[in-house]
Design goal:
Layout lengths: L2 H19 L3 H7 L4 H9 L18 H11 L4 H21 L2 H13 L4 E4 L15 E5 L2 E12 L6 E7 L10 E7 L5 E3 L13 E12 L11 H37 L1 E2 L2 E2 L4 H29 L5 H26 L10 H7 L10 H16 L1
Parallel strand pairs: 1-4
Antiparallel strand pairs: 2-3, 3-7, 4-5, 6-7, 8-9
Length: 381
């Protein structure tokens, strides 16, 4: 996208965040639901198609551009981003990267407009960080597969039109090599949803179990048409996904710092604003330093991704640092607000709970550490 067009898009998204999303935060928190009118506006802005090529009706943003737009969106409550997150991520990117021509033509235009919302079904009761231990089975029966298993904590499952389902299709191949990625419409017989999860934070972001009971799909539902490639497809998408999550953290850093600085400037103690006290200044300075360091890592990884270079290490570093940094910034924000920071009336309490998940999904911080160390050894060799 040319610079002028992109800046117009960013300005439009910024106004949407300021005028529509931030004012709706309390409504979403109380109702545990993002209003349908807001989701429709997100469709009209093209936000579901950020990462989908223009040839299929998407905006076709680069990784750097996508990160900038996501950062704008997550200045508002992170739950708004969750509505589009699974579609912008592996819900579309698995098909973009490895899908057949027919799969791309069928699904990408619908995903780009938000007509269809995608959900990624990987995690199971016994498979999370150890994704290669997936137990959901896809048994070949003639020219169809029968899928049976339970998926857990599946974001957007109640909203989903289609699932990307990771299932073990090759029983004789242990580990990652036996897993295939299936495109499964949500209305396929045999699919049912568990009760909505009650979470620490992120009210309005929908997650629940997805149960597959003898769910029949054609063999052509395998992404790319080749069995046993599902895990490889997921790994291809993860670098982009980790940079995306780093950008999510950046947007939340921006908002938390803004709230902290505003409160510290207005709140007076001992006859002066809190910003007059050096220990408060120290917390503000540390937060800004964390945010700028996270920004540098995220933007560098995004530019390297766009240049077609291997960014497995850089993406993991950006996600790891940014998600940990926003946790520190949220903690300081509560401290700067004092007793008020513990009260629901001030949103820092809510953001403090919301940011905690960033250190867990798309690979927990400890998984990122393992990836970083492994990549260091590979490059060193």
């Amino acid at each position: 996208m040319d610079i002028e067009t992109f800046e117009l898009l960013r300005d439009t998204v910024r106004r949407f965040v300021d005028e529509r999303l931030i004012p709706a935060e309390d409504e979403v928190e109380a109702a545990d639901e993002v209003p349908a009118s807001i989701i429709q506006q997100m469709r009209e802005l093209g936000l579901f198609g950020l990462s989908i090529p223009e040839a299929y009706g998407g905006l076709g943003l680069s990784m750097f551009e996508e990160a900038a737009i996501i950062r704008e969106i997550t200045r508002a409550s992170v739950v708004f981003r969750s509505v589009i997150g699974t579609t912008v991520g592996i819900g579309s990117q698995g098909i973009v990267m490895d899908g057949t021509g027919e799969q791309k033509e069928k699904w990408l235009p619908k995903l780009a407009t938000g007509e269809a919302i995608a959900s990624f079904a990987l995690t199971e009761p016994e498979a999370g960080s150890d994704a290669a231990s997936v137990r959901t089975k896809a048994v070949l029966d003639g020219d169809v597969y029968r899928i049976t298993g339970v998926k857990r904590y599946i974001t957007n499952a109640p909203r989903a039109s289609v699932f990307t389902v990771m299932a073990r299709s090759e029983p004789d191949i242990k580990g990652a090599g036996g897993i295939s990625a299936f495109i499964v419409p949500a209305d396929t017989p045999g699919i049912s949803l568990g009760k909505p999860d009650r979470k620490m934070g992120q009210r309005g972001a929908k997650t629940c179990d997805v149960i597959f009971e003898d769910c029949v799909v054609p063999a052509s539902a395998i992404i790319g048409g080749k069995p046993g490639q599902g895990f490889k497809t997921a790994m291809k998408v993860l670098d982009r996904g980790r940079i995306h999550i780093a950008a999510v953290a950046l947007g939340m850093c921006d908002r938390l710092i803004e709230m902290s600085l505003t409160y510290a400037s207005e709140r007076k103690q001992f006859g002066q604003p809190l910003t007059g006290f050096q220990l408060v200044q120290g917390m503000l300075a540390d937060s800004q330093t964390d945010a700028l360091a996270a920004q540098g890592l995220t933007e560098a990884a995004a530019r390297k991704f766009d240049a077609g270079q291997n960014v497995t290490l850089e993406a993991a570093v950006a996600k790891y640092f940014a998600s940990e940094a926003v946790g520190r910034i949220a903690d300081r924000a509560v401290q700067i607000h004092g007793g008020a920071g513990y009260m629901a009336e001030y949103k820092v309490e809510r953001f403090y709970r919301d940011v905690r998940l960033l250190r867990i999904y798309e690979g927990a911080s400890q998984i990122q550490q393992v990836i970083i160390a492994r990549e260091m050894q590979r490059r060193g060799a």
